[in-house]
Specification:
Length: about 210
C-alpha cells in the first residue's frame, strides 16, 4: 500500500513538472509589435517644375508587418527652392518648384526613411527595360522616366513573362506571355504607368511619363 501511494505521488509530480497544470495547455502570447523601420512607396522621384507625385510611408514592426496608428512627420531639405511638400498623414504630395535635388524624409518615432527628389526640365525619349534578366523574376530597371510621346522597349531574356498594365492613365495594350524578343510601347499621355507580370508575384515596374 505504501508503494502504491509513492507511485501515485511520483506520477502527480511528473505531470505537474511537465506543465500538466499552470497555463492549462495555453500558449505564450505573441510578442508586442515594436516599430523597427519605415518603408516608402518610392525611394526616388524625378519631377518637372510644377509637377507633383505622392509618396506613402509604411511603419513596420520587427516581423516586417505594417503598423497602423503611427504618426509620420515629413520634412524636406533644403526646405525651400527645390520642392514643396503637402503632408497628409502617412502620405505626402511633393511638388517640384525649381531645378535641383532635395531629400524627403519620413520620421516615425525616430525611425527614418529618405527619398531622393530630383527636379529637371528634360527627360529621355526612350527607355530600355530587361524582362527577367539573368533568370530573375524582375524588371530592370524597375522604374524609368520618359518624356511624353516617348517609347519604352521591353526586352525578354529567355524566360516567359508578360507585361500587364495596372489602371494606367490611358488605355495601353498588355503584352502577352513570351520569352524572347523586344516589344516597344509608346506613351503619349503624362502620368504614372504601373505594370506587373501576372505569372510571378512581386514582379512589378513603373513608367513615369512627363
Amino acid at each position: 500500500m505504501r508503494h502504491a501511494k509513492f507511485i501515485s505521488l511520483f506520477i502527480s509530480c511528473v505531470l505537474a513538472g511537465c506543465g500538466g497544470s499552470g497555463d492549462s495547455g495555453g500558449t505564450n502570447p505573441p510578442p508586442t509589435p515594436v516599430l523597427t523601420s519605415v518603408a516608402l512607396s518610392k525611394t526616388a522621384a524625378t519631377l518637372r517644375p510644377t509637377e507633383s507625385t505622392t509618396i506613402t510611408a509604411t511603419p513596420k514592426d520587427q516581423n516586417g508587418n505594417a503598423m497602423s496608428g503611427q504618426t509620420v512627420d515629413w520634412t524636406i531639405a533644403p526646405t525651400s527652392g527645390i520642392a514643396s511638400i503637402t503632408p497628409n498623414g502617412t502620405s505626402v504630395t511633393v511638388t517640384g518648384t525649381a531645378l535641383g535635388s532635395a531629400a524627403l524624409t519620413a520620421t516615425v518615432q525616430q525611425k527614418t526613411a529618405t527619398a531622393q527628389i530630383t527636379v529637371q526640365n528634360s527627360f529621355p525619349s526612350s527607355a530600355d527595360i530587361a524582362v527577367g534578366a539573368n533568370g530573375a523574376n524582375a524588371f530592370d530597371p524597375q522604374q524609368v522616366d520618359i518624356a511624353a510621346g516617348g517609347t519604352v522597349n521591353f526586352n525578354w531574356n529567355g524566360v516567359t513573362h508578360n507585361v500587364t498594365w495596372q489602371a494606367p492613365p490611358v488605355s495601353v495594350s498588355n503584352i502577352a506571355d513570351r520569352s524572347s524578343g523586344t516589344v516597344s510601347v509608346t506613351l503619349n499621355t503624362a502620368g504614372t504607368y504601373n505594370y506587373q507580370c501576372t505569372l510571378h508575384a512581386g514582379m512589378t515596374g513603373t513608367v513615369t511619363v512627363h
